[in-house]
Write a structure and sequence with these properties.
The complex is a heterodimer. Chain A is α/β, with parallel strands linked by helices. Chain A has 2 domains: about 30-250, Rossmann fold; about 255-330, 2-Layer Sandwich (Alpha-Beta Plaits), CATH 3.30.70. Helix content of chain A is about 35%, strand content about 25%. In chain A, strands 7-8-9-4-10-11 form a 6-stranded mixed sheet, with helices on both faces. In chain A, a hairpin with a 2-residue loop joins strand 13 (about 280-285) and strand 14. In chain A, helix 3 (about 120-130) crosses helix 4 (about 135-150). The longest helix of chain A has 17 residues, at about 195-210. Chain B has 14 helices and 1 strand; from the N terminus they run βαααααααααααααα. Chain B has one domain. Chain B is an all-alpha fold. The chains are: A alpha/beta, B mainly alpha. Chains A and B meet through strand 1, helix 3, helix 4 and helix 6 of A and strand 1, helix 1, helix 6 and helix 7 of B. Strand 1 of chain A pairs antiparallel with strand 1 of chain B, so a sheet runs across the interface.
Chain lengths: ~325, ~290
Amino acid sequence: MVDQCSLEPFGNLKRTKGLGELVEPQAKKPMLELDGLSVRFGQREILKDLHVSLSGRTIGLLGPNGAGKSTLIQTLVGFVRPSAGTARVFGHDIRRGRGAIRPLLGYMPENDSFVANMTAVAFVRMMGELSGLPHDAALERAHEALFYVGLGEARYRLLGTYSLGMKQLAKLAQAIVHGPRLLILDEPTNGLDPPARKRMIRLIQEMRDSGELNLLICSHLLRDVEETCEEVLILKQGRIVHSSNLEAERAANKRFVELETFGPQDGFAEALAGLGCECESAGLGRIKATLPEGLEVREIYRLAASRDLQLRRLNYRRDTLEEIFLKAMEG
Amino acid sequence: MAVYKRTYKAYDGALTPAWSRFLILPRSAYGYVMQSKFLVAFRMACFFYPLGCALFIYLAHNLSILKAMNFQGAQFLQVNANFFRYFCAFQGSLAVLLTAFVGPSLVAPDVANNALPLYFYRPFSRAEYVLGKMSLLLGMLSIITWIPGLLLFLIQWSLAGSAWMQENSFIAWGIFIGLLVWDVILCLIALALSAWIKWRIAAGGAILAVFFAGAGFGAALNSIVRTQYGSLLDLRQVIGLIFSQLFRDDTAPPVPVANAWTALAVCAAVCLWLLAKRVRPFEVVK
C-alpha cells in the first residue's frame, strides 16, 4: 500500500496521480488529443494523420466498418504502437506515458472477454486487484460494481453461464471496478435486446452525470451516441471526416426549417435566398432552409402567399446525428 | 458505489505496490486448480516416494534396529549422491505428469475466452502475466521436487553429522539447481503449449508428447545418423546429463554436458518466443 490514487471528479484541485504526486487541475486540458497519429499494420495504413483535440466529458466515436475506430481505441489503450505522430490522454503521451495512462483507464472490449470458469464476483475482484486495489477493497467494490450494473443477484454464478446481455454488464463491471477516470466502451450495446440496451444507456448516462469519469464510446448505433455523448468524432477510411460538439450544435439555434410546399414553386427558393436564407431543395416540393438572424417566419408565409404557393408544412428542426454522419460519409 | 445506493463512485483509496500484483494470478487460480479431486489425490501421491526416502534414511542410520530384526541387507542401505539422484529422477517424472494436468488450465482459458485484453489494459504487463501464471505451477512443482529433496538432505545431514555435510554439500546444490531448472523448463513448456492450444485435453496431451515424441525422435536420429546428439531432443535425457554433472557422476556422458545446458536454453528461448507471439492483448491477423 505505498501509493495513493485519487480518481475524483475531473477538475478537482486535490487530485493525485498514482504515486501521490499532486497535479494541476485538468478541467481546461483536453481529455484526448491526437497529434498526427498514424497507425500501420504491415503495408496497410489504418489510421492516417489524425489531428483533433477533444475535451467533452463523453465522446462518441463513429464510423463505418473498417474506419479504424477499434484501432484508435487499441492505440489509446496501448495495445498498438503508432507508426507516426502521437496521442495524449489527459496530457499523458501514449508513447512515453503509457504507465501513467493505464491506471486511469477502464476498457470494455467489443468481443466477449471473461474467464468462463470464474464467478462474476471473483472475476471482477481479480480485475480490481490487478488494477492495484487491495484485496478487501477489490472484493467490496466488485460487489458494488456488480450490483450497480444490475448483476447483484447473479454475482456468484459462473461467467460461462451468463447470457450475452449479462456478459456485457459483467464487462462493464470489470471496467469500472477500479474507478477509472476514462471509461472506454467499445460497442457497449452490441447484441443487447431493447430493454437491455435501454438499461445500458441509462447506466452510461448515470455515470456521465455523476461527473466522476469521462467516457469514450465507440458504437455503430447513432442513437446510442446521440443519447449519451457531448462530442462526436467520425472516422472514415482511417481519417477524421467530422468532429463536433453535439451540445454546442444543439445549443446553437441555426433556425433550420423544413418546408413542404404545393403549387408552382418556380423561383421560390431563389426568393427565399433573397431574404437571406440558405436553401436546399429536397425534392417533391420540400425545401430545407436556414433562416438568418432577424427574419421572422411570417415573411416566408407572405412570400409564399405572394406567389400563390401553399405551405402545407413548416417544421423547425436541427441536424440529427444521422444527418451529420451521412454528410460526413458523403464527404 | 455502495450496494444499497446503486450509484457510481470513483475509488480514492490506497493502491498495492505494482511489483506484487503478479501474485494475484496464482492466488486466484489456485482455488480453481484444486477443485479437481483427482489432482488433490495425485499431489498427495507425489509425497509417497519422499516419505519412503525419509524412512530409508532413518533406517540407514539405525542399523542396530535392523540387525536386531535379523535383516541381512542392511549393508546395502547407503545414502549417497546416487540415492538423491534417483530421488530427483523419480520426482522429476512426477513433475512432468503434474505439469500435464495443471499446465493446460493456465493460459488456455484466457486465450479461449479472449480475456487477455482485460489484463493488459491495466497497469499489468505481459511479463507479469507470464510470471504470475508460471509462479502457480512452479510453486506446485517445487513442493514435490526440490523442497522435499532438500528436506531429505537436511534429515540426512542431521543424522550423519557435519562431516558428511561438508563432504556432500554439492548434493544439496544439485537437488536445488537441477530440479529448479527442470521445473522452470516444465513451466515454460506448459505455458507455451497452453497459450497455443486452446483445448485443455489437447494441450495436456501436447505437453506429454513433447517428452515422449522428443525421446522417440532423438532415438531415431541417433540410430539413423549414428550419433549421440539425438539425445538432446529428449528432455529427460538432457536433464539426466545435467544431474550427472551436478551430482559429480564419473561416468563419461554420451554428449558434452555443455550441450545439454545449451539444449535447455534453446528450449526455454523457443517457449518464450511462443509466449511472446501468443500472449498479446489482441490477435494480429495477417
